[in-house]
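Exercise: predict the fold of this chain.
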Amino acid sequence: MGEIIRYGLIGLGSMGRHHARNIRALEGAELVAIADKYGDKFGVAGDLEVLPDVDALIAAGIDAAVVAAPTGQHAEIALKLAEAGIHTMVEKPLASSVEDGEAMVAAFEAAGLVGAVGYVERCNPALMEMRKRIAEGQLGKIYQISTRRQSPFPARIADVGVVKDLATHDVDLTAWVAGAAYKEISANTACRTGREYEDLVSATGVLENGVLVNHLVNWLTPYKERSTVVLGEKGALVAETVMGDLTFYANATAPLEWDQIANFRGVSEGEITRYALNKREPLAVEHEHFRDAILGKGNEHVSMREALSTMKVIQAILDSASLAKTITF
């Protein structure tokens, strides 16, 4: 590999067009080949030929690839890239089945290649700052993590329901922020729009460190909400990731002198601080992490192995809902 990393991109849909823009803006990278058998509906090719498939992409002589094709195609494409010795980042989720995900992890690890997954929420400024502050002990002991990810139905989704498309973000970021894996999960799902897949899920669980978690996700809310609340012994951090805002709600230090409330509440409201953050586009940060991992300069990317752990929790959410029981890991 020369000084400039030669990138290929497969999938030129709603995410692929943003990947193309970010690769072109990335220092030390050059987008040299793109592929999509359905063509270039967003006009991102520029002077590049739109290739038909991953084989043509590999033949173009690339060092790294970004896979933004539908989830069901991830394994087939990624395994060919691994065999060709190409560092690869696939869009989330890793694959459409745990078995496919395991095959992908094994292939990239055996080849000594960077296998990354595009969990872009980990690059959201509010969540990056939240994780840093939790690690520094701002909240003390962590008690509970709650996420809400609600919005109208996005026309881009055809092959999965809300659990695999949206809840996967919450599972990944919760384990990452807390620094602990899931111990057990219980969930209920519903389909209210007549589609083949679920459009609502309510999940509750426990992490290995005892932190309680719950996730509320749907495609039936007439407004967009992306919220992560981490509650600890010293207060709560609230990340609103649509705008990248982070707010700290501290427990009051002054004693309550109204006995009835003091006895009931346990804690009282203290100072509220909204942090001023450096708000960069999360996808640009994600691409920097992938590039740095390729160059051996960083380890901030989401590995395929981490994404496989998330996949197993996601599958457990679906299994729990269908079997009406709690799944333990």
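Check your answer against the key: The mean pLDDT is 94.
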